[in-house]
Amino acid sequence: MAAQASDGAVGQAGGAVRGTNVMAILSLIFAFIFAPLGIVFGVVAKRQIQQTGEQGSGLAKAGFWLGIVFTVITVLWFVLIAVVAVASNGS
After folding, report:
1. Do 64 and 72 touch, CB atoms closer than 8 A?
2. Cβ contact 59:20 at 8 Å
3. Angle, in degrees to the nearest 10, between helices 35-52 and 57-90
4. What is the value of pTM for the model shown?
5. In this predicted model, what pLDDT tens digit does every residue of 22-57 receive, in sequence order?
6. Out of 21, 37, 57, 76, which residue is the most buried by the measure of CB atoms under 10 Å away?
């Protein structure tokens, strides 16, 4: 009987732990695949985590900031390409 009582206690304790927010995971993944979606998913994940108390706040924050960094780098890359193209056509 003691084994049954301890099994019930473990089941109850496990039920109180919340999982990791899926949007936070997607935020980090999409920061590398398509950075603007990493930003959006990061914002959505932070809001959901505040409401539900799930895990993943750090993942959402990392996905958000990496999304911003990679988006800025991509925009700067395209600006550089455009400037070089215009400069080479002008000569």
Report:
1. no
2. yes
3. 160
4. 0.76
5. 999 999 999 999 999 999 999 999 999 999 999 999
6. 21
DSSP line for the chain: -HHHHHHHHHHHHHHHS--B-HHHHHHHHHHHHSHHHHHHHHHHHHHHHHHH--B-HHHHHHHHHHHHHHHHHHHHHHHHHHHHHHHHHH-
- Number of other CB atoms surrounding residue 41 within 10 Å: 26
Q: Which amino acid is at 42?
A: G
Q: Is the pLDDT of residue 70 over 70?
A: yes
Bridge partners of 20, per DSSP, are 55
